[in-house]
Amino acid sequence: GQQLNQSPQSMFIQEGEDVSMNCTSSSIFNTWLWYKQDPGEGPVLLIALYKAGELTSNGRLTAQFGTTRKDSFLNISASIPSDVGIYFCAGLVVYNDMRFGAGTRLTVKP
Amino acid sequence: SAVISQKPSRDICQRGTSLTIQCQVDSQVTMMFWYRQQPGQSLTLIATANQGSEATYESGFVIDKFPISRPNLTFSTLTVSNMSPEDSSIYLCSVGAGVGGYTFGSGTRLTVV
Asked: Which residue of B1, B42, B94 is in closest CB contact with A103?
């Protein structure tokens, strides 16, 4: 099946810094999604992208669907302590087949 | 989007026993999905459960080990059978969110001793 390569694996940043993470694949996806998982919780959808080249924002978060449909990135601006968590990219080819990246563990130091 | 109630939230079980995890959705959904998240790992799809038919299992997962029930459009159960320490994971149910993504339950953290 399709494999998603997510990087970096972990990030340690200072509060107020910007963050960037990305996901690449050798396969094409029709939908790219970014999730955040807090400890003891299930993943929560942050941003969904549906078209190649699409750039979407959700507050301090911005994500883009790569033009080749094989990659996506997520940026977080002006990080705050509550941004701590694990961020997952996910790709959908068809509705019932979503694949997840390995996750980026974000630590924000006050 | 749908609200999912999953229980138990956590359990510690003896090896060789079975645990049934329940997932209740506040609206009718056609497909429900069960995922496993091993410690420090990403999410892996176990199976897709449709009401009125057998669940569809992903490679590496079998019905004898992970039997699934889907008696109606708002409820599903996943059983982890004959457990071993390697089954220690977080198990999550999810449903389509209507915008191309999925909504997840809060997960069941299983520890097998």
From this structure: B42
